[in-house]
Amino acid sequence: MQEQVAYLNEHLWVGQIGQLAMVTLFVTTILGIYGFFKAGKSRLTPWYKLGTGAFLVHSLSVVFVIGLLLYSMFNRFYEYNFVFESVSDDLPSTYVFVAFWEGQIGSFLLWMFWSIVMGWFLWRKKNEWSAPVLGFLLIIQAFLASMVLGIYLPGDVAIGRSPFTLLRDLNDAPIFASADYIQSIRKMANGLNVLLQNYWNIIHPPTLFLGFASTAVPFSFALAGLWYRDHRSWLPQVLPWALFAGCVLGTGILLGGAWAYEALSFGGYWAWDPVENTSFVPWLILVAGIHTNLVSRSTGYSIKSTYGFYGLAFLLVVYSTFLTRSGILADTSAHAFTEMGLTKQLLFYLGSLAGLFTILYFRARKSIPVLEKEEKLSSREFWMFIGSLVLLFSALLITYTTSIPVYNKIFDLFGSLTGKDMTSWHRAMPLDPIAHYNKFQVWVAFFIALLTGFTEWLRYRSLGWETYRKDYYRKVLFHALGALAIALLVNIWLDIHAWQYQAMLAASAFAVVSNLDYLIRQVRGNLRLGASALAHTGLGIMLIGILASGLNQDIISKDTNILRNDFGSLADESLFDNVYLTKNIPQKMRDYTLLYQKDTIVRNERLYYIDIYKQNPEGKVTDKFTIHPAVVYDDQFSKILSVNPSIQRYWNRDLFTLVAQVNAHHSGNEALHQLEDSLTYTRMLEHLQDTFETKTLTGWIESIAFSTELGDYTPEPGDLCISPQFKLRSKATGAMYEAHPAIVLRGNIVYSLSDVINNLNTKIRLSDDLLDEFFRKEASQTYETIEFKQGETANAQGYQVHFAGFNRHPQHPMYLPDSADIAISAILEVTNPGGEVFEAEPIYYIRGNRPYNIPAYLPEEDLMIRFTHVDPGKETIELQLAHDQVNQWQIPFEINSDYPRDDYVVLQAKIFPGINLFWSGGLLMMVGLGLALWSRRKQRRQREHA
Amino acid sequence: MKKIHIIIGIMVIAGIGLIIQASGDMSTYGTFEEAQLSGKKVKIVGTLARDKEMTYNPEVDANFFSFYLTDENGKTEQVIYHKEKPRDFELSEKIVLTGQMHDGTFRATDILLKCPSKYKDEELKMKS
């Protein structure tokens, strides 16, 4: 038993009132449900007031809990597990919100928040459906609330996971014996994964969760309709909500696609990933529901299917929640949550709602009006219904494959009940999921496109068909011919060979032509009447965009030298994608030339600047631009977390580039340390001009410099720098290279600056003993001092030194000027005994009351000249001269000739043709849905006014 | 019989047909031995044989990565993947390969890694 510790700096009041608010939040849903059901369709009872009051308190509690959590996050109350796991001290405040809804608990709260927002809009309607719909909405809300409740029942049953759980209650670690443990865990706070710190994460989750939450409204309407066996009057009421849900959920899915395309490395906007599928499927069903809803409102047909679709849409949202949050998809999806102990509760949630819907449906089934008379083939409603069935069909096929992990779990459950090993029953996802889904969905797209094309021009109940028929067929023929012509033209560009896709292209073109014609000729641009035609035009455009960008993705970085490929008939499209770029060496890639120019670090990313020139066959540059794909490191630069593509956009295509691999030196510090540990260096000790060799080169040290210009080094006053100048000859090519490793003594710290010669795969670094050698020689040095004025000449060490003048702006690699410096150099002409004249310019400077000097060294003469003093009174300067005898130095260094290059990057480049058709088509579809919503509101307002 | 019933009937039949076909796409996890015997494309789950050589040398060939994988039956084979080495490859707990045997080596067309979770709520899994 742990002793009671009086902890410091905890904010326990947050958890206490938070938990209180949490319980209030849950209890008020129950009260609200009770009140609203008692009230029923009458708003004049006190029960309605109770429901409203409970809903109000509930809403305030949700907002309060969210506010309290955000407050704790902003103030970094790390004693709470939720805060500890989601933020850290260095997280920018913009991303605190992202950190809030990124985890399971936060996203449930976000969902609940959107539910109450919609609840109040429903409440404001103040009609007979308000109370029943709110009642059912609160049932859903109660389930959501139970996920974050965090109440423990006897028998170790936990209901939900509370965000107000203390870290020390969840973990039993020695650190909690310390009263001030919060100080020690600050640094350990997880924070938000840098991959999630981007603007997509600010807009995508709220949109998607608003979409999820809004599908609950048609669901609640359907339940309310069934409950009261009032099957008609809810139909017009629910439509705007369904349109809203379709628009928002669709936008959320598109945003997800845009995020995947722009920021993640999946290399596309859609990968048929289970997580993507499970949000797409409810949308399909919802859209099917919108269509049958329209039919039922106008004709009285399809009421049963409208119930079914709205019911199924939300149940599939819950199924999706179950799949993504139970950890069941961990094996098959790239972005599902992990299990967090809510699986059973989620399953109960799904089962209860499905059960509720089924019971209410069968209870009311007999009373649902069904028209005996069959829809006519020439009626709009017949084909709209068929279209909805096709959507359902598509949704079922997608769900069938996405649910594979569920079947495996069921087999396991069966196995554990019967005591058999069922692992042989397990199934894996298709080998090529994209091909698998596309194979079926191409026909769904085909039929949907075709149906939207010819159904738009049909009329409800075949009104006036006898007189309209001829005109109708003429129009369809005209559209078909137009579509065929367009499809042929588009196919010149796309060059599709598979007949299935050709069919889909033709159907999509048909949808575009027909709906566009409807917009122009039928409603004459009146968008209020043309919302559906607009949405369907968008659909057609989007489908063409999918064909263009999906089928015709052209990997231009592919290794074209496929002959050396021993794969033979096994050659797979997905392989050989990489092009290797060496810094400053142009690399051809199809009709592009790539030049890897430089790379720079920006925040926690390394950006590679690569110039791309496009040439026409005559060699003329027709296009030139720079891309900058990046790799993303963690905050310590210890490893690479992810890559960021760079996209060059054109109106008709995108050029998408991605770093596939970086060199070992750019792979983060962990990899770099590993690399260094794995390398063995040969130690050498050489005099100047002695030759030495490794397996790849012959080399010698030409001379010694006392300065360096190596990359990372910034000189500081007082630095001592020694840099032997190596000459290296490649054994393979005979080419000559230079290397200038250096060793710097700053204060009492030694820096060894190694030099890498990529073309020789060689790294040279100096041993610290070089300094010993220098100081040993320096100690035995005899300096000769001279003191003279400007214009005078003096003799020392057998040299004649002429003091020509001062330079008040001295320049030297070892000297970084500072505005407060007093710095001068002496311009000297030095004549050796043989009469040869050399120039030397030693520097003397004062920084912060301390004198420094940077000597001049004449390598040919091995003469060191120091500028040691200035006497302003006598107007003289003092110089010290000595022979350093570097010829006698023994220079210790280490060399490795297996060193990986540090000047390359491996790149992938892809062209997505027509991708803007996809985005603009998708956008148009959402605008169409939004427009339908807007025009319906307007119609209703007008009707109410009239 | 109503037209709609006929159409629904056709769709149900087509649906069953497609689902049967879809089930054919679903694979079982195979082993090297099965891959060797059938010569067909399979999915293999295994672990990286850490004591064996792993080669990826982009300076020589940016599209050649080779390593050894031990399948669930304990058989170890060389795997060749004509693409870059996936990031965090060494950290993988489990590797799922898609590909087939050819000339005594397994030619992978796709590699999926399962890595120990680094993030709180997320299982990190990367598609290479």
Strand order of the main beta sheet of chain B, please?
2-4-5-7-6
Mean pLDDT of chain B: 81
Radius of gyration of chain B: 20 Å
Q: Output the number of helix runs of chain B.
A: 2
Task: Assign the structural class of chain A, choosing from mainly alpha, mainly beta, alpha/beta, alpha+beta, or little secondary structure.
Answer: alpha+beta
Tags for this model:
heterodimer, A: 946 residues, alpha+beta, 5 domains, six-stranded antiparallel beta sheet, B: 128 residues, five-stranded mixed β-barrel, 8 strands
Task: Describe what this molecule looks like in 3D.
The complex is a heterodimer of chains A (946) and B (128). Chain A has 22 helices and 33 strands. By secondary structure, chain A is α+β, with helices and mostly antiparallel strands. In chain A, strands 5, 6, 7, 8, 9 and 10 form a six-stranded antiparallel β-sheet that branches. In chain A, strands 14, 15, 16, 17, 18 and 19 form a six-stranded antiparallel β-sheet that branches. The mean pLDDT of chain A is 88. Chain B has 128 residues and is an alpha+beta fold. Chain B is 23% helix and 36% strand. Chain B contains two helices and eight strands; from the N terminus they run H-E-H-E-E-E-E-E-E-E. Chain B has a five-stranded mixed barrel with strand order 2-4-5-7-6. In chain B, helix 2 links the parallel strand 1 and strand 2.
